[in-house]
Amino acid sequence: MAKRPPQPRPVAVKDILRRFLTPGDLEALKQRREIRRVWEAVLPVKVLAQTRLLEVRRRELWVEVRESVWAQELQFLKPQVLAELDRVLGPGKIQDVRFRVGGV
Q1: 2, 50, 58, 98: which one has the fewest Cβ atoms less than 10 Å from its Cβ?
Q2: How many other CB atoms sit within 10 Å of the CB of residue 74?
């Protein structure tokens, strides 16, 4: 019976990720984590369940809502959300929050 060829040694996940992620990618991931933390802290649980964060595009945070009534409700909370994002991320990182009706 033939011997099995030697297997390569295990590689740490962090070493693999370093090959694929640039420092800018890591900064974007950190920003997304902070945005989610702020979003979950500011919104009431009832409203939070009706939303899904989509992306940041040109300093605008895009959010999907289940129905248009939730988009209207979130318009009232937008100043509070933007103020907290400015405090956490720094002024001007997110300049607006946009809503899109979808499936959530």
Answers
A1: 2
A2: 18
How much of the chain exceeds pLDDT 70, in percent? Answer: 99
Pairing of strands 96-101, 51-57: unpaired
The most distant pair of C-alpha atoms in the chain lies apart, rounded to whole Å, by: 73
Q: pTM score > 0.90 for this model? A: no
Q: 90 with 96: CB under 8 angstroms?
A: no
Integer CA distances (angstroms), 5 to 8, 13, 44, 68, in order: 9, 24, 58, 61
Q: In whole angstroms, what is the distance from residue 62 CA to residue 96 CA?
A: 9
List CB contacts of 45: < 8 A, sequence separation 6 or more.
Answer: none
Can you read off the two tokens belonging to residue 58?
Answer: 């040109």
